[in-house]
Amino acid sequence: xxxxxxxxxxxxxxxxxxxxxxxxxxxxxxxxxxxxxxxxxxxxxxxxxxxxxxxxxxxxxxxxxxxxxxxxxxxxxxxxxxxxxxxxxxxxxxxxxxxxxxxxxxxxxxxxxxxxxxxxxxxxxxxxxxxxxxxxxxxxxxxxxxxxxxxxxxxxxxxxxxxxxxxxxxxxxxxxxxxxxxxxxxxxxxxxxxxxxxxxxxxxxxxxxxxxxxxxxxxxxxxxxxxxxxxxxxxxxxxxxx
Amino acid sequence: xxxxxxxxxxxxxxxxxxxxxxxxxxxxxxxxxxxxxxxxxxxxxxxxxxxxxxxxxxxxxxxxxxxxxxxxxxxxxxxxxxxxxxxxxxxxxxxxxxxxxxxxxxxxxxxxxxxxxxxxxxxxxxxxxxxxxxxxxxxxxxxxxxxxxxxxxxxxxxxxxxxxxxxxxxxxxxxxxxxxxxxxxxxxxxxxxxxxxxxxxxxxxxxxxxxxxxxxxxxxxxxxxxxxxxxxxxxxxxxxxxxxxxxxxxxxxxxxxxxxxxxxxxxxxxxxxxxxxxxxxxxxxxxxxxxxxxxxxxxxxxxxxxxxxxxxxxxxxxxxxxxxxxxxxxxxxxxxxxxxxxxxxxxxxxxxxxxxxxxxxxxxxxxxxxxxxxxxxxxxxxxxxxxxxxxxxxxxxxxxxxxxxxxxxxxxxxxxxxxxxxxxxxxxxxxxxxxxxxxxxxxxxxxxxxxxxxxxxxxxxx
Lengths: 242, 462
Fold this sequence. Notes:
The structure holds 2 protein chains of 2 kinds. Chain A has helices spanning 45-52, 75-80, 98-105, 114-124, 126-130, 141-153, 171-188, 199-205, 223-228, 230-237; strands at residues 5-16, 19-30, 34-39, 60-65, 68-69, 83-86, 159-163, 191-196, 208-213, 216-222. Chain A is an alpha/beta fold.
């Protein structure tokens, strides 16, 4: 399981103005792993994800990707290192068609692999194929999430960052999306870093996981360990499986 | 069976009469001071007032009768038609368009190419001046300006209220460089575009972080700064006097349109001496410039930079997370839009033969922006239609001499052009909130083009 380290977050502190959102976070993601980060609202999960992408940038600490320090790089250059993100709230382009949305993801290679990659994504999410000439804004929430992940995959990422892919979706659709992530990981060896509130689903899917409270990582372990951990169960799971 | 429908009929009439009277009352209240009373200076230079009850009555009657007809007849008619259509089950978005609709662009292009020839044949060279110059060239200048602004506002989604600044930069670049260095139109045209593009970048840099309303205010200020510099830098620009005697464009340096010159174009072609030929030539020049603008816009939309513009309009954060350099993308949008403004400006200068800061007031920016919004942001066809309607409409107002018979001899219809603009905007925004052509034509296709469903959905929500 333990491949070489792909992403290493070391002692990262991030501020919004004077408010400290991350208080020295250490996280590691190895090649070929699915790692998830769980925690309550406002724990700083999304902030960590955005810090990896350089917006906002970390005030102290380091983000190292593939052996390279990317802490102070602007966002678009970080994206060009093949860190693709499906951001919180999906952020698809509403007036552009599904195909155009996917095209935007393929911009890095100037559409060299566009057709081949689109076919792959249509196999992974057949719904997108049906909807290919429909405008993004007219898709359902689940379809938009598929599109957001699909768009990120078009960039041929080394690391896929997913920010709350289950947000506001029906359980059945969440299951489908998590299934797709697992498939990507197993068949293509894609490394995934996942931020989730849906702790149960995330922990079941993940090789390893971190628990975040108030801008700090308080616990880490394999997905199974954390699922069995009484503290985690009490805080994030017993409230009902989302 | 008949009585309920009669009942609703009379109920409708009662409602229409009531609403008509109400509208009349509102109109009376609104126009009492503006129209009903007029101030003027008498012989002793005193400001005195008199009443214009007749004119006020016309305004009130128009409002009351208009409302009565709308409520009583037009609206029920539209509702009935909609109902019938819904019952017949024919979808409004049908693939089967008429011949005219399908070949609209080709027909429009051919009509434009034949337009000056047709007007010369109908009205003679001298009589064609009005149609070619006042209507043709005037409208095409605005089409080009609006298409240029469309790149910034419609595609990249950056609200620019100071677009006229680039128009001014283009016009003054041509005027000054041609007067001081004697360079020809065909050298200065691209140069004016480049200079305007440079100013676009200069404006772009400080406002990169701004979006929406904040950006609009800064661009508005920029437009005013350029105009004030033109007014106050009298050594170079001659201030409010403007620059006159700007050289005419030549036919690619081969023939000239100066009557005195040995290679005077109409003489070389064996035509009668008339200024109309120059205007016709200019018509084709601006038509070509418009076509270049359209072609470039269409091509760019299919290229990475054009896609990035459109994506930037939709979601800036998503753009960055996809590796798009938003700084460069915004700057190229500003520069490209400004460049076309510069082209249009240098054309304007050579057509007028005279430029002054008067031509580059904020109102011009507002008009161009209004055309873009009315036409439907991003849609070239819609914008062209909007320009024809708005600019052509205001030009038509000049022709409406017969209105003087109704409103009296002091009535100057062209003073009402802003009223027309406002009215048109309200009507379009009520019935077509996203402009004449509100749907966006997609640029990516795997196999064949399919009808895009959901063209009519609200923006930004799923």
